[in-house]
Design brief:
It comes from Brachybacterium ginsengisoli. It is a single chain. The protein has 507 residues and is mainly alpha-helical. The protein folds into 5 domains: 23-180, no CATH class; 188-267, no CATH class; 286-320, no CATH class; 348-438, no CATH class; 447-502, no CATH class. It is built from 18 helices and 10 strands. A hairpin with a 5-residue loop joins β9 and β10. α2 packs antiparallel against α5 (112-119), α3 (76-90) crosses α4 and α9 packs across α11.
Length: 507
């Protein structure tokens, strides 16, 4: 058998449309009558699309000056400061803000020719963003080559599928000239949410194909061996191996291959070759609203204050736990009582309360959780020499920060101030780049729970009023005047309004 290699074709330097795309040609292609409502709408949409490109170019132009070289480790605080300022201004996360700054720098500095086409409205915004994503792994020299080639295309007239095909060819031609990343460098394990808040997540294991296939085969072999032993034990009436929850003995059938593969990964101990793994610093909190726990409401619970869990799943989890922790808060403020100012470290109860009310880093735009890698921070600095002078260790003066942002605050790159109403005003940069105020998260009650409790109370008052009217004979008199009232159909508020205007209140 002969092996053949074919060199990747050099991408075309001339990418042209058959005819220019203008307002007139657009109407002709769509067989629309000039002056009609459809023709006017199509023309407006075409112009809006090009204006959107020009607007996006201006947006990138404003963002580009916030770029700071990522190669210099001494500028890490400057990069974080600017990312935080942009995150607050754009109402996004710090990670997204850093990505947009990088995108703006790449567009304006590294690929100026296509940026000019974007500014002129010739290159659609989505095309430009697709191009920037595609060149992310290329070298600066390759990006310059891609920029030069694409800028020469007939971007104002070629169709979208032609642009995508030509872009793929250019990127493939550039990538073949550079050695690809070593597969061993791609090893990673990440947690991915389903994106639907349905209580489901995935553990993604990435690595070289031989290693991943070997892991899958070992997992399959282990699950088949356990399943075989379970089947033999059922046939012989012997103790059932790996029957972790007693389901096999109860149902009289072996666990499925999928269930066994999951259980082997999830329920067995991880071997760290003698390295001691420290115990978790905090318990994992699954916060379940009391009405949900009682089955009177289906408001989702939260896993560590961040990840929603369906009501049924949270009740099932509660059934298996031997110990529950009740969280009591002040009915007005939802806070614990303050500690004396002379104490620097907050109590364990205060830390748990902070973790419940601040499940993510308190810095605006930060998405890092506060279970691990986070620290308790005094908003007004604690005075170690004269504790009575300020910076008390109280919930009014505490929040949880990711350790990186805690260092950032210590370096005075950010300055939080707790306002009298419990909100926090954040100033980023010195001199200030941006200032924003974040409202407090006072308690653990959700608006849905509050609404359910209010509705239940109003319904109780309505029933009480009806019972009192029956005892006083008012209900009988109303029925004689108005006829029978079907309380399942009649609006209680309307009936109450008529009753209050037409009769004297019975109480």
């Amino acid at each position: 058998m002969e092996m053949m290699t074919v060199a990747a074709p050099r991408p075309s330097s001339r990418v042209r449309a058959r005819s220019p795309l203008t307002a007139e040609s657009l109407l002709s292609r769509g067989d629309l009558e000039a002056g009609s409502a459809d023709a006017a709408a199509i023309t407006r949409m075409m112009e809006r699309e090009r204006e959107e490109s020009r607007r996006h170019a201006r947006h990138l132009l404003d963002l580009a000056p916030f770029w700071i070289d990522h190669e210099d480790p001494d500028l890490a605080d400057d990069r974080e400061e600017r990312s935080l300022a942009i995150a607050i201004a754009l109402r996004t996360t710090t990670a997204a803000a850093a990505s947009r700054i990088r995108e703006a720098h790449r567009a304006f500095t590294e690929m100026p020719r296509t940026f000019e086409r974007l500014s002129a409205g010739d290159m659609p915004k989505d095309w430009h963003r697709r191009m920037l994503r595609a060149v992310g792994d290329l070298t600066p020299f390759q990006r310059e080559e891609v920029d030069r080639r694409i800028a020469a295309w007939d971007l104002a007239s070629i169709p979208a599928d032609r642009f995508r095909d030509e872009l793929r060819q250019v990127i493939a031609w550039c990538e073949r000239q550079e050695p690809r990343q070593c597969p061993e460098h791609s090893r990673d394990v990440t947690v991915e949410s389903s994106g639907r808040d349905d209580g489901v997540a995935s553990l993604r294991i990435t690595g070289p194909i031989p290693e991943i296939l070997s892991l899958a085969r070992r997992l399959d072999a282990a699950s088949r061996a356990v399943q075989t032993q379970q089947r033999h034990a059922l046939e012989q009436g012997a103790p059932i191996p790996f029957d972790l929850d007693g389901d096999v003995a109860r149902d009289g059938t072996t666990m499925s291959q999928a269930a066994l593969r999951y259980a082997i990964i999830h329920r067995t101990l991880l071997d760290t070759a003698g390295v001691e793994v420290p115990a978790p610093r905090h318990r994992v909190n699954v916060v379940i609203p009391v009405l949900t726990l009682m089955g009177l409401d289906d408001t989702p619970a939260t896993y560590d204050g961040i990840t929603p869990l369906p009501a049924a799943m949270s009740r099932a989890l509660a059934e298996t736990e031997p110990v529950w922790h009740r969280v009591f808060t002040d009915p007005l403020t939802g806070r614990f009582l303050e500690l004396p100012a002379q104490r620097y470290r907050p109590s364990p109860e205060m830390v748990e309360h902070l973790r419940l009310t601040t499940p993510r880093c308190a810095v605006p735009g930060c998405t890092k959780g506060t279970t691990d890698g986070a620290e308790n921070d005094h908003i007004e600095e604690f005075d170690h020499e004269h504790p009575e002078r300020g910076g008390p260790t109280s919930l009014d003066n505490l929040h949880r920060l990711h350790w990186g942002h805690h260092d950032f605050k210590t370096a005075r790159r950010i300055d939080p101030v707790r306002e009298p109403d419990g909100s926090t005003t954040w100033t980023v940069g010195s001199p200030p780049l941006v200032r924003t105020t974040v409202p407090p998260r006072l308690d653990l009650a959700t608006p849905r729970i509050a609404a359910a409790m209010t509705e239940s109370w109003e319904h109780y008052r309505w029933l009480s009023m009806m019972e009192e009217m029956e005892r006083c004979g008012e209900a009988a008199r109303i029925m004689q005047e108005w006829g029978p009232v079907d309380l399942e159909i009649e609006d209680p508020e309307e009936f109450d309004h008529r009753a209050r205007w037409d009769i004297d209140p019975p109480f």
